[in-house]
Amino acid sequence: MGPLVTPERLREFFAPRSLAVVGASDTSGWAQFIAASSAATGFTGPLIPVHPRHATVFGRPAVRSLRDLAEPAELAFVMVPTQAVEDVIDDAAAAGVRNAVVLASGYREAGPEGYARQDRLVARAAAHGIVLLGPNCLGFINTHAAAGPFALSVPLPLLSGPVGIALQSGALATAVLAFARSRAIGVSTLVTMGNESMITTADVLDYLVEDEQTRVICLFLEEISQPDRFARAAGEAARAGKPIVALKTGSSPAGQVAALAHTGSVAGDDAMVDAALRQFGVIRVTSIEELLCTAGLLGYDRLPAGRRMGVLTASGGACGIIADRASAQDIVIPPFAAGTVAAIERHLPLFAAARNPLDVTGYVLANPRVSALTAIDHALDAAMDDPGLDFVLFCGVTIPDARPQDERLAGMIEERVRWLGERIASAPIPVIPMGSTCVDVSGYARDLLTTHHIYLLGGFELGVRALGHALRWLENRGTLTYPAPPRISRQAAVPGAAGSWPEAAARDLLAAGQVPLVPAELVNSAGEAVRAARRIGAPVVLKVCSAQITHKSDIGGVALGVHGDAQVEEAYQRVRAAGESVPGAIIDGVLLSPMRAGGVELLAGVTVDRTFGPVLAVGLGGVWVDLLGDTSLRLLPVTTDDVKAMLGELRGGPLLRGARGTRPADLDVLAQVIKNVADVAMSLDGSLRALEVNPLWVNGDRVEGLDVLVVTGPPVPNGAEA
Amino acid sequence: MGPLVTPERLREFFAPRSLAVVGASDTSGWAQFIAASSAATGFTGPLIPVHPRHATVFGRPAVRSLRDLAEPAELAFVMVPTQAVEDVIDDAAAAGVRNAVVLASGYREAGPEGYARQDRLVARAAAHGIVLLGPNCLGFINTHAAAGPFALSVPLPLLSGPVGIALQSGALATAVLAFARSRAIGVSTLVTMGNESMITTADVLDYLVEDEQTRVICLFLEEISQPDRFARAAGEAARAGKPIVALKTGSSPAGQVAALAHTGSVAGDDAMVDAALRQFGVIRVTSIEELLCTAGLLGYDRLPAGRRMGVLTASGGACGIIADRASAQDIVIPPFAAGTVAAIERHLPLFAAARNPLDVTGYVLANPRVSALTAIDHALDAAMDDPGLDFVLFCGVTIPDARPQDERLAGMIEERVRWLGERIASAPIPVIPMGSTCVDVSGYARDLLTTHHIYLLGGFELGVRALGHALRWLENRGTLTYPAPPRISRQAAVPGAAGSWPEAAARDLLAAGQVPLVPAELVNSAGEAVRAARRIGAPVVLKVCSAQITHKSDIGGVALGVHGDAQVEEAYQRVRAAGESVPGAIIDGVLLSPMRAGGVELLAGVTVDRTFGPVLAVGLGGVWVDLLGDTSLRLLPVTTDDVKAMLGELRGGPLLRGARGTRPADLDVLAQVIKNVADVAMSLDGSLRALEVNPLWVNGDRVEGLDVLVVTGPPVPNGAEA
After folding, report:
1. Which of A264, B293, B576, B598 is deepest in the core (most CB within 10 A)?
2. Which of A710, A715, A714, A712 lies closest to A506, judged by CA?
């Protein structure tokens, strides 16, 4: 038997034509919500209450059990108490019901007992061939299939549209739908994930990527439990031209506690999540408003081919705010071409200047008009032919709250909106209409705008931020690698199972992997040290060598810049004694190396993330890491181009390019060495715990590891979750 | 004759009881707007159209000229064409009209001719004792005085409230009022500033600080033209407990162009603006939404005494988002006290945990209720007595779009809101209600909330950001100095008028001002250099000394770490030759100093900002300034406490506290030296152009200027604008 949750099966699951609501009663708020949600989506199929003691519910005839259904319902929404759920699943199987949403709580989120209960439920359903959404789940809405088995309030009207949504916190759905409505953003399918006992977020992501009605995908995430499948789906989404926008919580320690509490699973480290989402091409946002405004832009508008923006407004203040916000997003507002200026000037008051950003001035608003079109509309006609622009931001949409009683005025407004819709559809470059703030789009405006296929971006702040997201998404789309599947070592962080390698062994491993290291000799007497120092040449560095001592400097186990026999002898005794004073440390000897000066010191290390497996961190050493946390992260594997991109992301990166008098680093050589470090780490497979070259010294084309650390533990299965 | 624009006069100006609209006609959009705005504010006084050719306008009897008024109107709104304005002002004077708003454009914003026209207009008005708002101005609204001489559309209903607003871009007013309405934020007085020919933004700021109806002040700024008066007003506002929130544009080069174009005045450098606003205690925001949501919180809510927040929600997702946003604002979400946990648990479903942030779970929403109060309300009762909390964020306000037809349900909703209003008023700590997103507050909700004095913060994102602003404002209030008046040297940046001092003279100036400098000897031969080096002790530094050469390193005019007679001789010849190779440079000699090692290098400099006068910049040297732009700015004068605060703001600040093995700097000594640098700069008064000590070397309690630069020019009047 293959897996139950297949793409075909999900298409069936999310488009039921008949619905049984098990546990429905007249006093159940959940059932009331389901009836209302179904009505909101225009559900026309049978909606059959199932209750052992009620003959009718909401005036509809009820059956006592799923077994009493005349025909199997295509979906059962199960809202019975936790202890009754398993029996209902048996009833469903007997009745030929193949799909169920389970509302009850008390499963994975409720400790070990709940875990066991969830395992039993899944086993029972799987044995019957039944697919579950939930438990601890509020259901879903599919506007295009007109299905709404959804146990929360739906703000009306519910607008159908291109935005697919999956939420790991179902109770947020009403807030999400309310904001979507306020901005006239239409939803395709919205799914609340619950405990993901069978249908997972990755499954829904796959479904939405394939769903023809969905053009953009919104996610609310508390965890990414299947990063390999997530990465694969992200790659598919990019190939399908469907952006993914994610609001992922857990960026604060407190946030991580809340995520943990709610989902019963462990959230990953946020910097890693951030890096992974970027690598997967997922747009990360921080608010529900930003989530939906960004999705609205990506779902409705034609996207610009570049960053050169024309701006048309009726207020100098708007020009200033938009220019500032655009600058923060690296969006360019170039001067208009001469022809554009001339064409715009014809329709402006004398004192207004035809420049980009354009303020047609408020005079235009108050002047009596003979046609529906105003100066800003004529400016649009001119700007959209400007060869120096990639798109036009049009801040001239003004629609009253309600249809004016003056028919002539109403007709003029409606004619102008029609005209704008036509222009947007036919303009040579994208024309993106934007409001001043994110106030609600009124019912009148919504009807008018949707009729003419116009999406109005929600305000200068959210709108320009959404544009920045869209432009970055477009630019990055071709460059992303969607490392899939990342290697999963979920149990890698088990404490106590890890051990540091002796430095000599660690050096051998890295050297074999083509990581150049500073020359070093292991000595075990002061005399050997002196002879080695003579061979190496002054100044030298001495370090005590012991697998038990990872922070040698802290215990005085390192001597730097040592000159001459006497100093070498003294330094040998000193660092050896420092090592021997550490209880339990087995001393392998003292390592002598030449002292390196000038150049730049980097850090290149691989750690194993609980969620994402091995992760490469690259940073400049010293203050850059200590005080600024200036590192770049990538899931493995990486290419040398990835490594170069990582180096380019560092704030201290200019030092590698020769700022402040340093020799420019040979980035080809450096990137290859760092890639080799990553490859050596990968070669350790499931036993890898950490591998670090720190400092990695760079001076022009000379790259040398000055100190290395390798930590391994008992092998864990690779790709455990794949 | 004293100044026309006095506080008394402004109170009169902004509360007219009769209004003449000069130039009004039935086809004038402006006049229609004024009639509608007056109605929106509940204006009951006479509104008299004035037009030479119309007997009636909007059905009201018109007069031909202001001279024909039976009694003088308290305000004239002048909307005649530019060329007719001056005559209207004469008419006003003849009629005894003392106050006028001028709509016409073509003044300061229209080049030299416009400047002259504006000067003429002001002179004419002043001669008559008439006070002008504008020209190029859309008027104002005063909800408490029920006056609305305002020539833009007012979104209805217009809510009266505590937020005073001044806008340097009048055309933004409709967007501002629309967003305020959407969040049920009430306005006291809104003024559009126009060209500020007589009434300036600082005047309106003073007015709003004194206005009893205003509790918080919102500004949209394109320029700060009177920083001294602005600073004084900010100080008064702080003393009055009225926060100022400002959206100041011009943060981007493009934004600066837009501001310049619109206001006809020069915008200051944005980093300086940022520093000045912070120093004035002004909350700076980047969007209209943030401006008003922050003002709403400050205007309506009781403010917390600290950062410990209790969070009550009905969604785990909300907890996650709020926790992340709170963390970004350094707001703490501590565990509940045991008593709070016990009290909350009694009202929660078994599977829900009584922790902070609290998710009472969606179950509560769907369960049939016997009373209006739900679990989240009981949680509020418990949390507001928690001794470990400073305030409670209450995310449990759910009001439908319209009053339910079910009377019992409507009664329950209304009773609950009443209860909440009562709790907010009586709770021992502030209770701050917040919605999930910034969707519009519906009419039903607005009426209900305002009746019970409840302000609902607009969403997790804007709401928590507003809280962060409020907390910082409260914490900083006592520590700010409101340097007033800052010295103004508006013409200081005149090119060509400045000159560098010879290094010896610059050193003398600083030394006299108690700025310790590294010892130095000026020599003029290789022999003198060798003898000086012997006295100083190796290693030494040699620098060529010439007022014409400010960047000595760039031309090879510096030798570092020089040892021994031979090296000193060679270095002397080399740096001298480098200096002599610069065309036009007069060489004063070569300066020898001991080489300093270890420690940290800082930069301490004073520049003269066009708007704000002398400004102190403090930063760590090297990469911190070059790559990170890590500097702190303050208007002068400063105290040593100010300087310590500046050092604390630096990202590289930990280096001064001994991070990475450096000796901790003696901050008392260092702050005194930097203050002395600032005082020396101030002593140059209007002739100051720049004064810089860079590097300023710090090693423990040793602080020494290693290099100094003083640039002065012809004196300019000090406090020119004061």
Report:
1. B293
2. A710
Q: Which residues on B lie below 8 Å from A104 (Cβ)?
A: none
The answer to whether residue B719 neighbours chain A at the CB level (below 8 Å) is no
For B98, B438, B609, B687, the CA distances from B490, given in Å and listed in that order, are 33, 42, 8, 12
Select from B215, B165, B214, B161 the least CA-distant residue to B184.
B161
Contact A214, A232 (CB under 8 A): no
How do residues A621-680 score in pLDDT, each as one tens digit?
766 777 777 888 888 889 999 999 999 999 888 889 876 667 899 999 999 999 999 999
Q: Count the Cβ atoms, other than its own, within 10 Å of residue A128.
A: 17
Q: Which domains does chain A have, with CATH numbers?
A: 1-152 (3.40.50.720), 302-456 (3.40.50.261), 519-594 (3.30.1490.20), 600-712 (3.30.470.20)
3-class DSSP assignment, residue B166: strand
Query: Is the CB of residue A323 less than 8 Å away from at least one CB of chain B?
Result: yes
Q: Closest chain B residue to A358 measured between Cα atoms?
A: B258
Q: Is A655 on the interface with B (CB under 8 A)?
A: yes
Q: Do B175 and A249 touch (CB under 8 A)?
A: no
3-state DSSP assignment of residue B497: coil
Q: Which amino acid is at B357?
A: P
CA distances from A289 to A247, A286, B324 (A): 10, 9, 15
> Over chain B (722 residues), what is each successive 10-residue block's mean pLDDT?
87 98 92 95 96 92 96 97 96 97 92 94 97 96 97 95 97 96 98 97 97 98 90 93 95 50 40 89 97 98 96 94 95 96 88 88 59 82 96 94 93 94 97 97 96 96 98 88 51 52 89 95 94 90 86 84 91 94 91 88 87 87 74 90 93 82 88 96 88 91 92 64 36
- Is the ipTM higher than 0.90? The answer is yes
Q: Among partner residues A105, A258, A362, which is closest to B320 by beta-carbon distance?
A: A258
Name residues whose C-beta falls within 8 Å of residue B559's C-beta, 6 or more positions apart in sequence.
Answer: B541, B542, B543, B571, B574, B575
> What b/e readout covers A87-99, taking b as 16+ CB neighbours within 10 angstroms?
ebbbbbbebebbb
Contact A317 B651 (CB under 8 A): no
User: Per the structure block, which two tokens stand in for A282?
Assistant: 């997922």
Could B249 and A317 be called an inter-chain contact, meaning their C-beta atoms sit closer than 8 Å?
yes
Q: Is B138 on the interface with A (CB under 8 A)?
A: yes
Helices (H), B268-391: 270-279, 288-300, 316-328, 338-345, 363-366, 375-383
